[in-house]
């Protein structure tokens, strides 16, 4: 990684009993430890939160000048009221070690906040690229071994070492793949660093959805990749990552980056071959499948078809060494390709309007998700899509960067951390460094893992009740709905009026051992 060493602290000063509430963003090679205990929504705990992101919009100085990325301060003060003395400050040194007289003068930025808000700072974030050395760790030290589904803290927006403690593997092993929260990117292969305004308008405004390479995306915590592949038989490479009809880069470039990452970590990753917009026929599909199988170690890492389906637990995936879930959107999956799974379902609003996006996802989460859960993987496409008239308007219409900023500013982080917190699994976004989804997925996974452990305890208790009921030879187990294995354990006693239930225990979605 290019040499850029800076440490930023976002500090909230003056709220009620809090003299200083800080969340750090560490740009050094250190990864702060994260408790394996579950954490509810910060607003549920009535705790204010502050965090840093990278603003998707860029600051440019001319048609041919390179744009600069800026840190953005974000906050949600929940039920806390502010007064004129409350402030949020950005530091590049620890303010706890400063003298009181230095607190104002050493602040890079100072904001007097409202309840919820954001502020684009003047601090520029340079382009960077992680290398294999950034993924190494001391395997002899259990506290610094390679992480196991430990999504890097997005409070650490950039970090050279996104890996740390192994204890999250133990915490998350009971989660099923179908219920784990995974941060993802939309059109993952449509990435490019910003060059200049003219290039952005002419070619990249509606094509580029990310600015980090696949390797960077994975190091920073992305665990779901949305891939669209075009087939060009006249080209030496033949297979390219596309954005719709336009090729972006050779598919092999993406495969190599995924292989490097999987070899250096013990992570679980979902690859979704979602669309094939150019040149595909049965022969092209067969060639692509053979290319997938030929990738180093992929045949070993890929999760084979299982009777458990997506209800396989992360622990079972780790134990079997199958950390790569490959979904493929084509009937080829029905032709004996046991390493390819059914397509990931995309909840896509296909709109350029915020209110329509929120309304669409709210309805889908309310109506469809209960049906989808446990059957297939599905992703909430939390981004806006330019429409035909936008493409025709060109210069006058917002591009993907502008739309990503619009979604973030409209409350994307709040929607998923509150109203959709219990419903979402995979979330796909554009310019993912502009939101807090990686950190949120970490929090939600710990909560769900804790719930799974409680469910396991109930399962053991229910099994004991069932054994006791069998002693009297009267046990009723029934499924209320074919799709939901609700188990009812009833103990009956004989009375003059017949059989009378003495004890009833209903455990939703838990089958006694």
Describe the 3D structure.
The protein is of the alpha/beta class and 513 residues long. Among the domains are: 1-144, no CATH class; 454-507, no CATH class. It is 27% helix and 22% strand. It has 14 helices and 18 strands. Strands 8, 9, 10, 11, 12, 13, 14, 15 and 16 form a 9-stranded mixed beta sheet that branches. Strands 2-1-5-6 form a 4-stranded antiparallel beta sheet, with no helix packed on it. A hairpin with a 2-residue loop joins β10 and β11. α4 (214-220) packs parallel to α5 (251-264). The longest helix has 34 residues, at 437-470. The chain is globular, with a radius of gyration of 25 Å. The termini are far apart. The relative contact order is 0.12. The model is unreliable at 1-6, 14-39, 137-167, 459-493 and 499-513 (pLDDT under 50).
Radius of gyration: 25 Å
Summing up helix and strand content along with how strands pair, one would put the structural category as alpha/beta
Tell me the major beta sheet. Answer: 9 strands, mixed
Helix fraction by DSSP (H/I, runs of at least 4): 25-40%
Question: Strand portion, in percent?
Answer: 15-25%
- The general outline is globular
Number of helices: 14
Terminal residue distance: 50 Å
Which consecutive residue ranges, at least 5 long each, have pLDDT under 50?
A: 1-6, 14-39, 137-167, 459-493, 499-513
Note the quaternary state here. Answer: single chain
Mean pLDDT: 73
Total E-strand runs: 18
Keywords: Signal
Organism: Notodromas monacha
GO molecular function: phosphoric diester hydrolase activity
InterPro entries: PI-PLC_domain (IPR051057), PLC-like_Pdiesterase_TIM-brl (IPR017946)
């Amino acid at each position: 990684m290019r040499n850029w060493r800076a440490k930023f602290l976002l500090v909230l000063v003056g709220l009620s009993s809090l003299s200083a509430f800080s969340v750090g963003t560490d740009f050094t090679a250190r990864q702060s430890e994260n408790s394996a205990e579950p954490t509810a929504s910060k607003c549920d705990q009535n705790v204010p939160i502050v965090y840093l992101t990278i603003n998707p919009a860029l600051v440019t100085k001319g048609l041919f000048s390179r744009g600069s990325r800026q840190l953005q301060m974000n906050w949600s003060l929940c039920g806390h009221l502010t007064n004129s003395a409350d402030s949020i400050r950005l530091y590049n040194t620890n303010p706890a070690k400063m003298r009181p007289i230095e607190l104002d003068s050493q602040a890079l930025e100072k904001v007097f906040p409202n309840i919820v808000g954001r502020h684009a700072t003047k601090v520029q974030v340079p382009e960077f690229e992680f290398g294999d050395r950034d993924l190494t760790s001391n395997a002899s030290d259990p506290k610094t071994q390679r992480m196991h589904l430990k999504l890097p803290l997005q409070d650490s927006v950039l970090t050279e070492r996104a890996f740390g403690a192994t204890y999250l593997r133990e915490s998350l092993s009971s989660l099923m793949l179908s219920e784990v929260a995974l941060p993802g990117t939309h059109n993952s292969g449509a990435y490019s660093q910003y060059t200049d305004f003219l290039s952005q308008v002419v070619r990249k405004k509606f094509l580029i959805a990310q600015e980090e390479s696949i390797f960077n995306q994975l190091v920073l915590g992305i665990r779901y990749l949305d891939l669209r592949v075009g087939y060009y038989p006249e080209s030496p490479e033949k297979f390219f990552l596309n954005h719709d009809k336009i090729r972006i880069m050779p598919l092999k470039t993406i495969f190599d980056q995924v292989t490097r990452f999987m070899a250096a970590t013990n992570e679980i990753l979902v690859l979704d071959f979602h669309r094939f917009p150019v040149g595909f026929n049965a022969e092209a599909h067969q060639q692509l499948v053979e290319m997938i199988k030929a990738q180093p170690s992929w045949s070993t890492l890929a999760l084979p078809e299982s009777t458990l389906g997506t209800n396989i637990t992360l622990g079972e995936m780790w134990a079997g060494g199958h950390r790569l879930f490959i979904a493929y959107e084509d009937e080829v999956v029905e032709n004996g390709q046991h390493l390819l799974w059914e397509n990931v379902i995309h909840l896509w609003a296909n709109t350029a309007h915020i209110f329509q996006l929120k309304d669409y996802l709210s309805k889908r989460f309310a109506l469809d998700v209960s049906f989808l859960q446990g059957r297939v993987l599905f992703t909430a496409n939390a981004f806006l899509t330019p429409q035909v008239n936008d493409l025709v308007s060109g210069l006058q219409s917002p591009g993907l960067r502008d739309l990503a900023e619009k979604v973030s500013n409209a409350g994307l982080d709040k929607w998923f951390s509150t109203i959709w917190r219990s419903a979402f699994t995979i979330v796909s976004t554009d310019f993912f460094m502009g939101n807090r989804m990686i950190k949120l997925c970490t929090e939600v996974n710990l909560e769900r893992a804790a719930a799974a452990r409680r469910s396991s305890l109930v399962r053991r208790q229910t099994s004991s009740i069932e054994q006791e009921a069998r002693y009297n030879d009267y046990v009723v187990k029934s499924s209320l709905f074919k799709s939901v294995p609700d188990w009812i354990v009833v103990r009956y006693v004989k009375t003059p009026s017949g059989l009378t239930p003495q004890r009833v225990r209903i455990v939703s979605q838990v089958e006694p051992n």
